Every structure is written in structure tokens, then in C-alpha cells.
Amino acid sequence: KAGVTQTPRYLIKTRGQQVTLSCSPISGHRSVSWYQQTPGQGLQFLFEYFSETQRNKGNFPGRFSGRQFSNSRSEMNVSTLELGDSALYLCASSASGGGETQYFGPGTRLLVL
Amino acid sequence: TQLLEQSPQFLSIQEGENLTVYCNSSSVFSSLQWYRQEPGEGPVLLVTVVTGGEVKKLKRLTFQFGDARKDSSLHITAAQPGDTGLYLCAGAQSYTGRRALTFGSGTRLQVQP
User: Fold this and answer.
1) pLDDT value at position A23?
2) Number of neighbours of residue B55 by Cβ within 10 angstroms
3) B42 and A104 in contact by Cβ < 8 A?
4) Among chain B residues, CA nearest to A10
């Protein structure tokens, strides 16, 4: 079974731009969660999608948004990028969410200049 | 304030030494997971502990869940350079309706040959 895939793996943007990251979960998994990882803050939860609906949301500004498609693939969008948005963005999938085992993708490393 | 505190934050040891990483909280968790993350990759699940007092062994790694389900430890016997990485604990509180995992700040382990 293929693992979680994320594209692109690396991205460089400038302040004020917007970016869209993509995540394909493990086949059959319906829950997709997004996390931001930085050296200072560690792994922080952004949001979780299940069956195309946002089911959980972390404490991030509205510039961070996401969506999930009928095939469970998910996208995350960040608008009006700030320098502090530079981070590793991780996507994780699970069969039904709810704190069960999550399988992580390799992440997208975003650098905002 | 971090809900899950990990200690130590950094650990550099020689090959063959033993070590213990701690994950502590004042909150009760329905389950606790340990992940290892290598540079440039997403976290990979090592183990999930569910029952208070539970002990699980994975080759040279021993995981323990506290009786009150508020803390956990990871013990590595005869560490090897391949054990190098970032170790993360993550707690689930499904009984509260909160579905997202809460991650600890991580312990960065370096094993010198």
C-alpha cells in the first residue's frame, strides 16, 4: 500500500504571496490532518478533514485554510505569506481520525523570503 | 504552555549507552503514541500504548504508559547510531471529543559511533 504523499517537497515564496500544498492519503483513509512544524514551536495542529468536512481546527489565523476532495485528497492554502510561515508542513492520514494512529507524509518545506 | 512536556530536549550519547526519554502531562490521555522523525522526513509511528501501566517492547526500545495515563517513557538499551533522530510523544484525548493528537516538544537524540 502506498504511503502518504505530499507535493511539492520544497517551495520558496516571497512575503505576500499565497501557496497551495497537496496531500494524498493512504488508500482507504478518510481523515487527513495538517500540521506545521518549526524548531521553536514543534508540531502544531492546523486542521483535520474527514469526508470533505473540516472536523477540527487548531489555533491558526484565517490565512490558513484547507479542503478535502471526494477522493480524500487534501489541499492546504496559505494566503498573504509571512516570514514566520516558513516551516515544514506535514500531512497525516488515518482511517477515521479521532486520535488513532496517524501516518505522516514526508512534508513540504516552505521557505518564505 | 505545552500540554505534553518531553525531557530531555537534547541528548548526545555514545554507542552502547542506555537512555530514557520522558513525556509528562497533568492531563489524562486515552492513548499515547511515540514517533521517530529523521531529518527531511515525516514522523514514523513506533508504538501506541492504551492501557495504564502498559509496557511494550520493540527490540531494544521499551515503552511504558503511566498507571494514571498522564505520562510515558521510552527506554533505549545499547543505543546505536541508527537510533539518532527526533523522538515525539503524542497524546489522544478522544473521551473529551477532541480528535486531534497533541504532540510533545520532542527529544533530539544523537548517538555517536
Assistant:
1) 98
2) 12
3) yes
4) B40
Q: Transcribe B40-86 into DSSP letters.
A: TS--EEEEEE-STT-EEEETTEEEEE-TTSSEEEEEESS--GGG-EE
**Measured torsion, CA atoms of residues A102, A106, A112, B2, in degrees rounded to the nearest 10:** 40
Q: Does B103 contact chain A (CB < 8 Å)?
A: yes
Across the interface, whether the CB atoms of B103 and A100 are under 8 A apart is answered: no
**pLDDT tens across B54-97, in order?**
999 999 999 999 999 999 999 999 999 999 999 999 988 765 55
* Nearest residue in chain B measured CA to CA from A43: B103
* pLDDT at residue number B97: 58
Contact A104 B94 (CB under 8 A): no
User: Which cell goes with B31?
Assistant: 492513548
